[in-house]
Amino acid sequence: MKRYDQVAQALAQRIEQGQYRVGDRLPSVRALCRELGVSVSTAQEAYRRLEASGLAEARPRSGYYVLPRPTPSVLPKVSRPAQRPLDVSQWDQVLELVARAPEEDRLLMLGRGIPDLAAASLRPLQSQLATLHRHVAAHGLNYDSLPGSLELRRQIVRLADKSGCLLHPDDVLITTGCQEALSLALRTLTEPGDVVAVDSPSFYGTMQILKAHKLKALEIPTDPRTGISLEALELALEQWPIKAIQVTPTCNNPLGYTMPEARKQALVALAQRFDVAIVEDDIYGDLAFDTPRPRTLKSFDDDGRVLLCSAFSKTLVPGLRVGWMAPGRYRDQALHMKYVSTGASATLPQLAVAEFVQHGHYERHLREMVRQYRRHRDIMIDWVLRYFPPGTGVSYPQGGFLLWLELPGAVDCVRLNEQLMGEGLHITPGSLFSASGKFRHCLRLNYAAAMTPAVEAGLRHVGEAVAALLEQEVPA
Amino acid sequence: MKRYDQVAQALAQRIEQGQYRVGDRLPSVRALCRELGVSVSTAQEAYRRLEASGLAEARPRSGYYVLPRPTPSVLPKVSRPAQRPLDVSQWDQVLELVARAPEEDRLLMLGRGIPDLAAASLRPLQSQLATLHRHVAAHGLNYDSLPGSLELRRQIVRLADKSGCLLHPDDVLITTGCQEALSLALRTLTEPGDVVAVDSPSFYGTMQILKAHKLKALEIPTDPRTGISLEALELALEQWPIKAIQVTPTCNNPLGYTMPEARKQALVALAQRFDVAIVEDDIYGDLAFDTPRPRTLKSFDDDGRVLLCSAFSKTLVPGLRVGWMAPGRYRDQALHMKYVSTGASATLPQLAVAEFVQHGHYERHLREMVRQYRRHRDIMIDWVLRYFPPGTGVSYPQGGFLLWLELPGAVDCVRLNEQLMGEGLHITPGSLFSASGKFRHCLRLNYAAAMTPAVEAGLRHVGEAVAALLEQEVPA
Fold it and tell me: For this UniProt entry, which residues form the secretion signal (chains A, B) (predicted)?
C-alpha cells in the first residue's frame, strides 16, 4: 500500500471512530506532515483520496472538512393515523416534560425544544434587557397596550416581509409565547366538540389545547418530506365538519420538513374551497437552512383565513415569553380573547426584542444559529446511524434543531424514557405527538446546544438501550 | 371677635380653599406667629379652636394636620341588578381603556387601575431586574417549570400566611398576571352556557372572561360597605344552576369595601352547602388600610373549593405580569389549563419579585403605599365633595386606590367620557362593571399617584361637566 493510501486510511479510521466529527476541520497539510513525518505531497495526495471517497471536502483557503456519511439514512414512514376525530390524551407524559425546572434538572435532556442559550450572538439581548430595566421610564413597568408594543410590531412586520407576508403593525398582536398565540387562535375559531384537522405527528402543545377545550383532533397522514397529505385532507374535509386546520408547515416540529411552496399554496386553496380557517405555527420558520427563508401559508392567504402564530422562543430565548400572531380577519375576536386570557403582555421583554431586531442583532444571530444547527443536524444524524440499530428511521430536518427517530420494532418509548430517566437521561417519546398515543416507537431529539462528548455518550446509551429492548422482543 | 378666633377662621378658610389639603401638616405655632404677628398663646388657642371644630387634629411631637371634612359623604346605593343570568356586553368600552399605550397617551387617565409607579420604595425592584438580566445564568432565559419558580412560590406562601392561609408551595401556580389566574380558574370550572354568580358592580376583566367563554353572569345585589348580599346569593343558588361564584371580597374593585370576616366565613359556608366553587380575586388585598390585613375567603376554605387569584400588579408593578393562584382541589385541571394557555410564565420577573419579597422590600413598599393611598383617599373624597354636585355618592375604600362615584341623576358616563376625552381627560365609566351596562351614571377614579394640581384641576373639570349635564337634564 502506498504511503498516501496509508495516511488516507488512518484519517478515515479517525473519522469512523468519531475523533473527527461531521463538519470538523481536519488537520492542515503542514500539521499532518509534522504529525506523521510524511512529505507535503504525500499529505496532499492523502487528502485527495479522502475527498474522492466522499469522507471529506476541500473548502478554498480553509482546509479539509469531514462530510456527513454517505450511508443513506432511512426516513420515518408516512404516518397513517386513524382517520376519525379523536379526543386527545397523553397529558401525563407532556406534564412530565414541562413541569421540570430546567436549572434544577440533573437529567441530560436530549429531546426538549430548547434552543442554544449559550450562543455568543445572544449577548446583546442580555445587556439590552439589563439596560432597559435599569433606565427605563415608568412606562416600562406599566401595562402595555393590549395589542403590544408598536416598536416590536413594526419589527415583526419587517421580518414577516422575508417570508412573503405583507403585514401592517395593526395586523399583529403580541402574545405571551407562541403557546398563547395558538391557544387564542384555536379558542377564537372553535367551540367544545368541534373537529380540528392536524398534521401527524403534531406538536403536543397544540394537541393539549384541543384536549383542554374539548375539541377533537382529526389526524391527517403526513409525509416526512412534504408534510400533510393534501389528498387525505381533502377527503377529510368532505367527510367531517372541520372547523380549523392546524399545521406547522415550515421546519416542522417534530419532523423537520418544510412543505414545498406549491403544496403550501394548494393547502391555502383547499381551505378556501371548503371555507375553513388555518392555524399556522411558524415558530421554527426563521431557522430554515435555506436562504431566503421559505414562504408561510399566510403569504398565500388573500382572504384573511390564515392565523399565523409565532414567537422568539426558538430563535432567541423562550424565557422571555415573547410571541405574536397575525390573526387575519379574526383580529377583533383574537384581541378580545387575548384581553381575557392575560391582558397585555409584559412590556420590557417586548422593548428588548424590538431593539435586538432593530439593531440587526436578530439577523446576525439567525445566521450563526442556522450554520450551527445545520452542522449539528449532520453530526447527530451521523451519531444515530452509528449508535442506533440498523433500520432506525431518521428525519432530515430542513431547519430548526429537532430530530425525529422511528425505531425498527415495537419499542415503547414511554417505558424506554422511564428507564433512561433512572440513568440520568431524558428523551421525548413520540406518543406525545399524537391524539391517541400513536408513535410510541418514535422519539424526538434536540441538537441545538454544543454537541459535547456527554451528549454523544448519552445518545450512544439510548441507542444501546433500544437495541437491548429490540433483542428482548425477538421470540426465543 | 377675639384675635385667636380670627386666626382660626383664617386657617379654616385656607383649608376650605384647598390651600392646605386633607392630611397636610399645618404651619407650626412658631411659623404662624411669625406670619401673622400674633403671640404664641394666640396661635396655640387658634389651633385648639380649629381642632374643636373638627378641621384639624394634633399629632404628638409633630404638629397639626388637616382632617377629612366632617361633611358626611353619601355612599353609593346598594346595587339592584337584574336577577337573572345575562350575556355580558360592554367590550367596546373596555377595549377603549385597555388598547391604549399608557406612555403615548396624552390623556390624564383619572380612572385606570394602575398603582403609583414612581414610588421610591419600588427602586430595589428595578435594580434587581437589571442585575438579574445582566448576570443570570442561562436558566433565566430558559422555560421555567410549569408551576413557576419555587423561590417565588415559597415567598407567596409566606405572604399568604398573613391573610390566614396555610399554603404549601405546591398549592401555588404562577400565572401571567391576575387576569390569567382568573381566566384559568373560570375555564377550569365552567363550560359554555354555564352561569356564574358575581358581585355587582364587578371587575370588567372578569366580566369579559365570561363573555369570551359564553358564560352567563348572574349579578347579585351588593352593599357598598359589606359586599355581596348573602341573602340574595342564597336565593339565587336555590333558583339557578350556578357553577361558580366570583367575588373580590377584600378592597373590592371598584367599590373599595372589605367584607366583614363573619360574612366571608358565611359565604364559604354557603358555597359548601350548595357545593359550588368560589373564584376569589384578592389582587388589592395586600393594600388594605387595616393591620393585619383582612383574611381571605381561602383562609376559611377547608375543602379546597376556593380558587384564590392574585398578582403583584397592583402592589408592585403591572408590566411584569407576575400573578399567581392557589386553585385548591382544582390544581391538576388548572395546571393543564395553564400549560395550554401560555406554557410556563416568564422566568426573570419571577426571580426578581421573589428577591424583592425575600429581602423585605415588599413589606416596606406596602407600608409606604398603604400610608400614601389612605391619605390620597381622603384628599380625593374631599375634592369630590368640593367639586361634584351635591348628592353624588362616594365610596369609602378600606384599601387600594380606587374610588367609585354614583352621580345624582341620569348622567351617561360613557358619553361624559367621550366628551372628556376631547378635553384631555379620561374616566372609567361605571357601565364597564356590569353585564348589561348598568351603572352608566357611575364612574371609577384612581388616587394612586401624586395628587397634583393637574389631577385636582382635572377632577374639578369633571365635576363641572357633570353639573352641566345635570342641569341640561332638568326639563325647562
Answer: none
Interface list for B 95-124 with A (CB within 8 A): 95, 98-104, 114, 117-118, 122
Give the closest of A129, A177, A346 to B319, CB-based: A346
Amino acid identity of residue A227, one-letter, is G
The SS3 of residue A197 is strand
Tell me, what's the ipTM?
0.89
Interface check for B321 against chain A (CB to CB < 8 A): the answer is yes
At residue B310, what is the residue type? S
Give the Å distances, CA to CA, from B425 to A475, B204, B384, B389.
81, 20, 16, 19
Q: Number of C-alpha atoms within 13 angstroms, CB side, residue B104?
A: 10
Residues of chain A positioned with their CB less than 8 A from the CB of B129: 133-134, 348
Contact list in A for residue B137 (CB cut-off 8 A) is 103
B450 touches chain A (CB under 8 A): no
Compute CA B456 distance to the chain's CA centroid, rounded to the nearest angstrom: 20
Determine the pLDDT at residue A127.
80
A140 near B CB under 8 A: yes
**Contact between residue B23 and residue B379 where contact means Cβ atoms under 8 Å apart:** yes
Other C-beta atoms lying within 10 Å of the C-beta of residue A106: 5
pLDDT 10s digit of each residue in chain A, 476 long? 889 999 999 999 988 887 888 888 999 999 999 999 999 999 999 999 999 988 899 988 889 999 887 666 788 999 888 889 998 888 888 888 887 766 556 788 888 888 998 888 888 888 888 777 776 666 678 888 999 999 999 999 999 999 999 999 999 999 999 999 999 999 999 999 999 999 999 999 999 999 999 999 999 999 999 999 999 999 999 999 999 999 999 999 999 999 999 999 999 999 999 999 999 999 999 999 998 999 999 999 999 999 999 999 999 999 999 999 999 999 999 999 999 999 999 988 999 999 999 999 999 999 999 999 999 999 999 999 999 999 999 999 999 999 999 999 989 999 999 999 999 999 999 999 998 889 999 999 999 999 999 999 999 999 999 999 999 876 54
Answer whether A276's CB lies under 8 Å from A267's CB: no
Question: Contacts of residue A103 in chain B, CB cutoff 8 Å?
Answer: 137, 139, 142
Distance from CA of B340 to the nearest CA of A (A): 5
How many angstroms separate the CA atoms of B39 and B36, rounded?
9
Compute CA distances B55 → A305, B67, B75, B376, B437, whole Å.
Answer: 66, 5, 21, 17, 40
Query: Scanning the structure block, which residue is given the C-alpha cell 432565559?
Result: B141
Closest residue in A to B350 (Cα) is A319
Extract the runs of DSSP E, i.e. beta strands, from A242-335. Answer: 242-247, 277-281, 306-311, 322-326
Provide the grid cell at B40: 404664641
Which residues, 6 or more positions from A131, have their beta carbon under 8 angstroms from its beta carbon? B130
Could you tell me if residue A326 is left (phi over 0), alpha (psi between -120 and 50 degrees) or otherwise beta? beta
CA dist., res. B140 & res. B131, Å (int) = 12
Residue of chain A with shortest Cα separation from B140? A319
**Contact criterion met (CB < 8 Å) for A145 and B208:** no
Provide the 3-class DSSP secondary structure of residue B309: strand
Residues A70 and B310: beta-carbon distance below 8 Å: no
Q: Check whether the bond before A292 is cis (ω within 30° of 0).
A: yes
**CA nearest to B29, candidates B8, B1, B12, B54:** B8
Contact A341 B341 (CB under 8 A): yes
Domains and CATH numbers, chain B: 3-66 (1.10.10.10), 91-100+123-359 (3.40.640.10), 363-473 (3.90.1150.10)
Contact flag B141-A344 (C-beta cutoff 8 Å): no
Q: What is the largest CA-CA distance in chain B?
A: 77
Q: Which three cell numbers stand for residue B434?
A: 356590569
